Amino acid sequence: MLTIQDAINNYLDSVKLARSAHTAATYKNAMQYFVATLSKHHMVIDKADISTLSEDAIVWLATDLKDHAPTTERLYLTAATGFYSYLAADNLATINLPRIKLLIQQRARRPGIRLPQFPISAIETVLLHANDLAKKPYEDISERLINLRDRAFLMTLADTGLRVHEACNLRRGDLDWNEGKAMIIGKGDRQDVVRFSTRATDALLDYLNTRREIDGSSNRALSSLPLFARHDRGAGLKVKPMTTTTGRNIVSDRVEEFLGKEAVGTITPHSFRHYFVTRVLRASGNLKLAQELARHKNIAVTQRYAHLSDDELDKGYWNAIEEKK
Questions:
Q1: What is the Cα–Cα distance from 93 to 86, expressed in whole angstroms?
Q2: Are 34 and 61 in contact (CB under 8 A)?
Q3: CA diameter of the chain
Q4: What is the pLDDT of residues 153-163, one digit of tens each?
Q5: Contact 237, 141 (CB under 8 A)
Q6: Which among 44, 139, 186, 257 counts the fewest CB atoms within 10 Å?
Q7: CATH number of the domain where residue 259 is located
Q8: pLDDT at 247
């Protein structure tokens, strides 16, 4: 006879082999909670045959989890569903898996939609200061190039919606200067077209024109050179591509310079992507347009940005109240 406890132990052993140590530990906690739930319903798991475990136990578990955080609820129900799937796959019990999923769907709380959080006004302040980098005094050409590169990089992030690794991977030949567009390989190895604003291309041209002598002495085709290059001491006079880490450091360093140390971490490269999508939505009101420009595969991701600012809510509230008077 295979007891419920034996089956749980075997299931956790299989999870340990196939999943990460962190996942295995989470599933172990989940199954311990499931055992406690079964015990509350007078099931002696080290003596009861696994065939006596019914699908209704998932309802008991879902009910007991109501007092826990939604994240814990989803994790534990996922682990328990996996256990039932394991029993069905090994023919250890007669399990109606569609019913299990339906029971969970009817009783589990749906995950809330977390709105992207980013300080719009702070980002705009960063961009204003970034534009002034072109006029900043410098001691040598490397410092001048870093200032112009960082200015162009921040403008590019803000006006294209590019992810940081996508921006760092751009080559000079990727950009069609006449059209203001670039062909990139984006998320999921998908080929996408990204559009550049006039201020972004102007900043890029300022940077590349200043970099002309270095690029020209590289003995490489200009089109193959990185759009954003390193200008630290390690790079010397060679044209080396910027890493994603460098891209993140540009953002954090300039945020500290323009806004102070306390602002570091509140704005990341991805914050500029959120800023881009929100600007498109508020300017156009077109969700499909924002989806295409942000290159979101699922429009539900774009919908997370379709929320009103506090100022817009305040204005709508007072207009509504005043109209009733």
A1: 9
A2: yes
A3: 82
A4: 999 999 999 99
A5: no
A6: 139
A7: 1.10.443.10
A8: 96
